[in-house]
Design a protein that fits this description.
The complex is a heterodimer. The longest helix of chain A has 17 residues. Chain A contains 13 helices and 12 strands. Chain A is of the alpha/beta class. Chain A folds into 2 domains: 217 residues, P-loop containing nucleotide triphosphate hydrolases (Rossmann fold), CATH 3.40.50; 72 residues, no CATH class. By secondary structure, chain B is mainly α. Chain B has one domain: MetI-like (MetI-like fold), CATH 1.10.3720.10. In chain B, helix 8 runs antiparallel to helix 10 and helix 11 packs antiparallel against helix 12. Chain B starts with 5 loop residues before the first helix and ends in an 8-residue tail after the last helix. The N terminus and C terminus of chain B are likely disordered. Classes of the chains: A alpha/beta, B mainly alpha. At the A-B interface, helix 4, helix 5 and helix 6 of A face helix 1, helix 9 and helix 10 of B.
Chain lengths: 337, 302
């Protein structure tokens, strides 16, 4: 699988510009029945306007938790232990409830992974798309509905004006996700966080939705954080990639570089386990040995060490720091080259 | 909540465009799938109409005594006979229906509001708030209903307002469990998180996203509570703690003239007794049918 040429080209603006969102050394933990579990461990990330950053990892790698902490939606059980999340010059973690609420849905919007349950079944689609506009712009319903119609047209829902009065169950999964995208775009946010936006959809629909999302965010020069476990998605739509494992970033690089030269054994393992169309029929797909990490009982060293073929003695005692290995390419691994 | 259940709920508490159509569709479904429940609904409706038009329908005044016709068995002039003072039993039954209806609607309404407030606050906010409130509910529910009622009514004295208040609180607190359960499951739905992610305030989330989705539960709760309140009020009246005389409540008719003159005029006990039984039974089967059709947790058990 080769990277999309478009992603390598990237957007020149994010080379010079101050990043729109900067996460610095973020750590998040959750209280569970088995004690406190650290879900995110010293994560630093940056996204610029017009850029698409993919956060890749398996379930429990901390990718969704990172996203939720940007919006302050961790819930009662989760808490940020340390770090800063700077958005447009402001530390989101330092804001009070009212201030962060003003940002949610207005400056930063989120798209969730389940279009089937992300829409309220008893409200019309028009009402739901108009909701963020009503919340943040204080315009009359008529105006909000007009804007909702425009938005539904932009996400290419046929006959948008007549579908405002329909309920979510009148829409297919892909159409519902388009509605979610329309909701997210409602207030022209600077940053859109899409948490596995296509996981629940058919493969053909997946591609349409992602292409639409990418196109609309680029048009508005917004930043997009795409959270996924699918490296195929990353290849086509992301400018830059951060690979997470057990709450840490293990490798980050421009999408093209990551594909051409993955530098962390976990990333290599992920790449190897993507089924290709050219693979021999009946051939076994390579897998990463061992079990996904148990966050409540992580080893002292590198969290991937127990599953790593190249693990050294130091790997099992001291976690490797994130080090530069190339142009905008970082990894957390002791292995040579 | 399974996703397949969503369209069904939507069909019931639907918004403006399809509201009337959805109601018809729902009634048709009630008749088709739950004929007994539909029959219960019709009886319930007749009871309501009797209550509303009691003053028009009653052939005689409720306290119109006529000693010349005391203890008459049912006849064309007196369809349900007369009592020991020559009062028309049918007129009194109709007035009793009205009293039962007023008491039960107000008390069940109050109970539903109490359930909603406790259930939503406890279920939505969770954590320590939930813990404290639920232990309070537990403590309250350790007292048997009737004992609590007798104690309160003996202290404050009988009368419609206190009975409504006490029954409303009693059933409201008990019902809050059911609402809380529904809220907890609705809260876990993605759209609640989505609403928070667009910057909605807590009150907005509750009003627009939580409450409309627990509506089916509230409707069922309200309906079944009406039956329960009628029965409990009759019980209190039977014990002399209900709506004070001379108001002709069914419970009082049963315990007063009904019991005293049981052998001379069995219709005096039969009329209020049968009315109570039929109306409460009808409301219960109707409530059960509603629950089966509305409550997604009951799906697949039909």
């Amino acid at each position: 699988m080769s990277p999309d040429p478009g992603s390598a080209r990237g957007n020149p603006s994010h080379e010079r510009a101050e990043p729109l969102l900067g996460i610095e050394d973020l750590s998040v933990s959750f209280r569970t029945d088995r004690g406190t579990v650290r879900a995110v461990h010293g994560v630093s990330l940056a996204v610029s306007a017009g850029e698409t950053l993919a956060i890749v990892g398996e379930s429990g790698s901390g990718k969704s938790v990172t996203a939720l902490s940007i919006l302050g939606l961790l819930g009662d059980a989760g808490s940020v232990d340390s770090g800063r999340i700077v958005f447009d010059g402001r530390d989101l973690l330092a804001l009070d409830d009212d201030a962060i609420r003003d940002i949610r849905g207005d400056r930063i919007a989120m798209i969730f992974q389940e279009p089937m349950s992300s829409l309220n079944p008893v409200l019309t689609v028009g009402k739901q798309v108009a909701e963020p506009i009503r919340l943040h712009r204080r315009v009359p319903w008529r105006e909000a509905y007009a804007r909702a119609t425009e938005l539904l047209e932009r996400v290419r829902i046929p006959d948008a004006a007549h579908r405002l009065g329909d309920y979510p169950h009148h829409f297919s999964g892909g159409m519902r996700q388009r509605v979610m995208i329309a909701m997210a775009l409602a207030c022209q946010p600077r940053l859109i966080i899409a948490d596995e936006p296509t996981t629940a959809l058919d493969v053909t629909v997946q591609a349409q939705i992602l292409a639409l999302l990418k196109e609309l965010t680029r048009e508005a020069d917004s930043a997009l954080i795409l959270i996924t476990h699918d490296l195929g998605v990353v290849a086509r739509y992301a400018d830059r990639v951060a690979v997470m494992y057990a709450g840490r970033i293990v490798e980050t690089a421009p999408a093209g570089t990551l594909y051409a030269a993955p530098a962390h054994p976990y990333t290599e393992g992920l790449m190897a386990s993507i089924p290709g169309v050219d693979g021999a029929i009946g051939a076994r797909l390579p897998t990463i040995e061992g079990q996904p990490p148990d966050l409540a009982g992580l080893p002292p060293g590198c969290p991937f060490a127990p599953r790593c073929q190249h693990a050294l003695d130091t790997c099992r005692t001291v976690p490797p720091p994130l080090e530069r290995v190339g142009d905008r390419h970082f990894r957390a691994c002791y292995r040579d080259g | 909540m399974s996703e397949a259940a969503l369209p069904r709920i939507a069909g019931v508490s639907a918004g403006p465009p399809g509201r009337l159509a959805a109601l018809w569709e729902f009634l048709a479904r009630l008749g088709r799938e739950k004929p007994l429940g539909a029959a219960g609904g019709i009886v319930f409706l007749v009871f309501l109409l009797c209550g509303i038009f009691a003053d028009v329908l009653a052939p005689y005044g409720i306290n119109e005594t006529n000693l010349a016709v005391r203890l008459q068995p049912p006849s064309l002039d007196y369809p349900l006979g007369t009592d020991h003072l020559g009062r028309d039993v049918l007129s009194r039954i109709l007035k009793g229906a009205q009293l039962s209806m007023i008491v039960s609607f107000v008390a069940a309404g109050l109970a539903t509001v109490v359930s909603l407030v406790i259930g939503v606050v406890s279920g939505y906010f969770g954590g320590r708030t939930d813990m404290v409130m639920q232990r309070g509910v537990d403590a309250w529910m350790t007292f048997p209903d009737l004992v609590l009622l007798i104690v309160i009514v003996s202290v404050v004295g009988p009368g419609i307002p206190q009975i409504v208040l006490v029954l409303g609180l009693l059933y409201g607190i008990a019902g809050s469990r059911i609402v809380r359960g529904a809220v907890v499951s609705v809260k876990e739905n993605m759209y609640t998180h989505a609403a928070q992610s667009i910057g909605a305030r807590t009150f907005h989330v509750l009003r627009r996203h939580i409450v409309p989705n627990v509506m089916p539960v509230l409707i069922v709760l309200f309906t079944t509570r009406i039956g329960a309140v009628i029965l409990t009020e009759a019980g209190l009246s039977f014990l002399g703690l209900g709506v004070p005389p001379p108001a002709p409540t069914w419970g009082a008719m049963l315990s007063g003239t009904g019991r005293t003159y049981m052998y001379l005029g069995p219709w005096l006990a039969l009329a209020p007794g049968l009315c109570l039984t039929i109306v409460v039974y009808a409301i219960n089967v109707y409530g059960d049918a509603l629950r089966d059709l509305l409550d997604p947790r009951m799906r697949g058990t039909q």
